[in-house]
Design goal:
- The complex is a heterodimer of chains A (235) and B (260).
- Chain A has 8 helices and 10 strands.
- Chain A has 235 residues and is an alpha/beta fold.
- Chain A has a single domain, classed as 3-Layer(aba) Sandwich (Rossmann fold).
- A 6-stranded mixed beta sheet of chain A has the order 6-7-8-3-9-10, sandwiched between helices.
- In chain A, β9 and β10 form a beta hairpin.
- Chain A starts with a strand and ends with a helix.
- The mean pLDDT of chain A is 87.
- With 260 residues, chain B is mainly alpha-helical.
- Chain B has 2 domains: 153 residues, no CATH class; 89 residues, no CATH class.
- Chain B contains 10 helices and no strands.
- In chain B, α1 crosses α5, α3 runs antiparallel to α9 and α9 packs across α10.
- The chains are: A alpha/beta (235), B mainly alpha (260).
- At the A-B interface, α2 of A face α1 and α4 of B.
């Protein structure tokens, strides 16, 4: 699904990605983890073509992403901060993204799932943070694409919505979709992720299943295992 | 690009600021006509206002819109759309809505006062065209500034400084250099100086059309002497086009190379 070779990116003096390589097979849920500033968001933005790498190649679905904006038809992206034009109404925003992408989509069940019907006629500037995140989730999941990239999907969600989000993610795994998720909530990782990709200092420090991670670090739960990786390297 | 343009335009048409801008021009138009009670004179007064205010409003509006829609731009960037289309769409959405406010806000009062029966219609038309050019130019310049400055305060500062420079300081320096180098032949210098500033250029363009280049003093005389009214009009229009095209081209170039 995604092949990344020798990816380098530097912002000013800050070398964020340093020779990162990654090969993801289609299907499964990959959690991208790492301490703050380890390059998670930069990696995701490189895959999306929003950040242009200094060196290295990225291909999605077998095609190189450079000079090829059409490859994003295969990706649905959930941005970290849900912020939309305040003068638009929720329904209009959904229609607009549908109109811009021109791909098959089915927003109705998602709107029901996140109980957004009463908000459809409200302006986006009038919504709370959690409701905006639900709108964000509808915009992402309404398209039927092979790859989903979710940046902190749980931000601001109430427990009921969080449960529905997890159900949705599980059903997508069964459909054979590929999901790339970043989060700092380890419980969420334990519940949904098939594999963990741990970034440290611009490289992939660990990649494998959650069990392999626990074995490697000799810890009982994921939270401590992740913390242990970070410690080992720094002490 | 046209879809993005459409949505940016709708978004702006619902924003309070478009109406403030529209009502301001409406009030200005009616007031000038009420005070002057003569279309041709009102056109001249209006020129002085437009030349300074249109660039200021386009600059501030452009920077403000760009920063306010930054997250939305990020959402669009993740969709299967070309970067240049996203930014050009937003740019023409902003510039288009500003032009519309200008044309309607000034057009309505002048039509009420019998513009279509008046000989001033061409002068007024040229005034609106120049206003449109200035909107396009300064919105493009402000988009460029906002795109290359992630810091809002800096972006605002640079944009307002640019306006201040082109609208006020440039003229001062120009005048100063004319006085300092009085002893030398300055015809070509003053000609180039006028062409290099879109605000001066617009002023010259309108004054040449109104045939009151005496008001312009030295520059106007030089302009008239060199080009004659017809050629002068064409050349200044051409340079205005260049002033519009270059920042737009630079915007697309910058948009293609930037990290978001």
């Amino acid at each position: 699904m995604i092949q990344i070779k020798n990816l380098h990116k530097r912002f000013g003096k800050n070398q964020v990605l340093e020779g990162l390589a990654l090969d993801l097979k289609p299907g499964g849920i990959y959690a991208v983890l790492g301490p703050n500033g380890s390059g998670k968001t930069t990696l995701i933005k490189c895959i999306l073509g929003m950040v242009l790498p200094d060196r290295g190649t990225i291909s999605v679905g077998g095609a190189d992403i450079r000079r090829n904006p059409g490859y994003r038809e295969a990706i649905s992206y959930l941005p970290q901060i849900a912020s939309f034009p305040g003068n638009l109404r929720v329904g209009e925003l959904i229609d607009m993204i549908l109109d811009l992408r021109k791909q098959t989509a089915d927003p109705a069940p998602l709107i029901g799932m996140f109980r957004l019907e009463p908000h459809l006629d409200k302006r986006l500037s009038a919504l709370s943070g959690g409701t905006l995140q639900k709108v964000n989730l509808v915009l992402t999941f309404m398209f039927d694409t092979p790859l989903y990239i979710l940046d902190e999907p749980t931000t601001g969600l109430d427990p009921a919505s969080l449960i529905r989000l997890k159900e949705r993610i599980h059903s997508m795994r069964e459909q054979g979709k590929t999901l790339l998720v970043t989060t700092h909530i380890m419980q969420f990782v334990e519940e949904v992720a098939d594999q963990v990709i741990y970034l440290l200092e611009g490289k992939i420090y660990f990649r494998g299943t959650l069990d392999a991670l626990k074995n490697k670090t000799g810890q009982q739960d994921v939270e401590h295992a992740i913390a242990a990786i970070a410690m080992k390297d720094h002490v | 690009m046209f879809k993005i343009l459409k949505y940016s335009f709708y978004d702006l048409m619902r924003s309070r600021w478009s109406y403030v801008y529209f009502i301001f021009y409406l009030a200005l138009g009616f007031m000038l006509l009420f005070l002057n009670n003569d279309l041709s004179k009102a056109v001249i007064t209006l020129m002085n206002v437009i030349i300074v205010l249109v660039p200021l409003i386009a600059t501030i509006f452009g920077v403000m819109y760009f920063y306010n829609s930054r997250e939305f731009t990020q959402l669009l960037l993740a969709q299967p759309l070309k970067r240049t289309q996203i930014f050009l769409g937003q740019y023409f959405g902003v510039a288009g809505s500003l032009c519309l406010s200008l044309v309607l806000g000034l057009g309505i009062p002048f039509v009420f006062y019998g513009l279509f029966k008046s000989s001033a219609i061409w002068d007024f038309g040229l005034l609106l065209v120049t206003g449109g050019f200035l909107t396009l130019i300064f919105t493009a310049l402000s988009f460029n500034i906002a795109l290359s400055n992630a810091n809002k305060i800096k972006g605002f500062g640079y944009a307002v400084l640019l306006w201040l420079f082109l609208a006020v300081i440039y003229d001062g320096l120009f005048l100063l250099s004319l006085i300092l180098f009085e002893a030398y032949p300055l015809d070509n210098f003053s000609l180039a100086g006028t062409l290099l500033n879109p605000i001066d250029l617009s002023r010259t363009l309108i004054l040449l059309k109104l045939d009151i280049s005496a008001l312009l003093g030295y520059t106007g005389a030089v302009f008239k002497q060199f080009f004659g009214t017809e050629a002068g009009l064409l050349i200044s229009l051409g340079v205005l086009l260049l002033w519009t095209g270059l920042p737009i081209w630079w915007l697309t170039r910058q948009a293609r190379r930037k990290d978001f």
